[in-house]
Design goal:
This protein has one domain: Orthogonal Bundle (Farnesyl Diphosphate Synthase), CATH 1.10.600.10. 71% of the residues lie in helices and 1% in strands. The protein has helices at residues 4-22, 31-41, 48-59, 64-85, 102-105, 108-128, 135-149, 154-163, 171-195, 202-229, 232-235, 241-244, 250-254, 256-273, 282-293, and strands at residues 95-96, 99-100. The structure holds geranylgeranyl diphosphate.
């Protein structure tokens, strides 16, 4: 059994080829838009969400070709959110994944269309390819990603975020914002990976979903800590932006020590949620460790 790093590297490497194949080719018209889509998705990022889908897929012995599609759909939504978030009308950033943001490298209109097109492609993939032997279950998967990405999920969380600049949020308000903005898609990645394989019972699905909820929130708490402590070169994106933009974060609300403690508690809750699953959940446990202990 390979160690976690070997497992993750192998999946990241293989998944890069999957994305290269699924994205429109750069010589297909309109070439500039397709080049910008590939620029925004390929060769970048930790691929945490796809890895969560692969790990959940392993838990239910899913066909990897099916999980690839589900993981790609989630990663395309994630990439679209980053492209739009970096635009001047939102976070206005110039650096992402160690390179100029999409609107800087191309232009604002192209960045807008890149996000739109990546989102459409994500749903096209989920509808185009067989992901489950049960078509009703597959339709549920499409709905799951739609809800996680939309106004009751990631986009809604982003709206709350944009409205919270310069404001004092309570801890429950901050938590709700991040459960939507960051957590919804991470949670969806776990669920979609699991939906590609043998059906789990309701109790098991709920435990898996609780795992996704805990790691999704832990991811954001750690992100807040890293934004306040790590440097731009390590993160591949502009560090210290939260403080600069006067955004409420776990660090501004709780301080670094308490934020780290909160991440540790969420880590423990996430692992507890998997306690009934045995050895097949090994990669999910390791991903929870990675999400909380990461340095970038
Ligand atoms: C524009 C609809 C819309 C939503 C934007 C995800 C998001 C919502 C904004 C990105 C900005 C941000 C800091 C979000 C918090 C979530 C987060 C830490 C995203 C970065 O995810 P990583 O670290 O990125 O997984 P990589 O580059 O590794 O894929």
């Amino acid at each position: 059994m390979p160690d976690f790093q070997t497992w993750a590297n192998a999946h990241q490497h293989r998944f890069e080829d999957v994305l290269r194949r699924l994205l429109p080719q750069p010589d297909t018209l309109p070439q500039r838009l397709h080049a910008a889509m590939r620029y925004s998705v390929l060769e970048g990022g930790k691929r945490v969400r796809p890895l969560l889908a692969f790990a959940a897929g392993e838990l239910v012995d899913a066909d990897i070709a099916r999980v690839d599609i589900a993981a790609a759909a989630v990663e395309l939504i994630h990439a679209y959110s980053l492209v739009h978030d970096d635009m001047p009308c939102m976070d206005n950033d110039v650096l992402r994944r160690g390179k100029p943001t999409c609107h800087v490298e191309y232009d604002e209109a192209t960045a807008l269309l890149v996000g739109d097109s990546l989102q459409s492609l994500a749903f096209q993939l989920l509808a185009d390819q067989q992901l489950s032997d049960n078509p009703v279950r597959q339709l549920e998967m499409v709905k799951l990603l739609a809800v996680a990405s939309g106004s009751r999920g990631m986009a809604g969380g982003q709206a709350i975020d944009l409205g919270s600049v310069g404001k004092q949020l309570s801890l429950p308000e901050l938590e709700s914002m991040h459960i939507h903005k960051t957590g919804a898609l991470i949670r969806a990645a776990v669920q979609l990976g699991a939906q590609c394989g043998a059906a789990l019972g309701e109790a098991q699905l709920n435990r898996l979903d609780h795992f996704g909820k805990c790691v999704g929130l832990a991811f954001q708490v750690v992100d807040d800590v890293l934004d306040s402590e790590a440097d731009t070169a390590t993160l591949g994106k502009t560090a210290g932006k939260d403080a600069e933009q006067d955004k409420p974060t776990y660090v501004t609300l709780l301080g670094v020590q308490a934020a780290r403690k909160m991440a540790a508690e969420l880590h423990r809750d996430a692992l507890d949620a998997l306690s009934g699953f045995g050895a097949d959940a090994r990669r999910l446990r390791e991903l929870a460790d990675f999400i909380v202990l990461r340095k970038f």
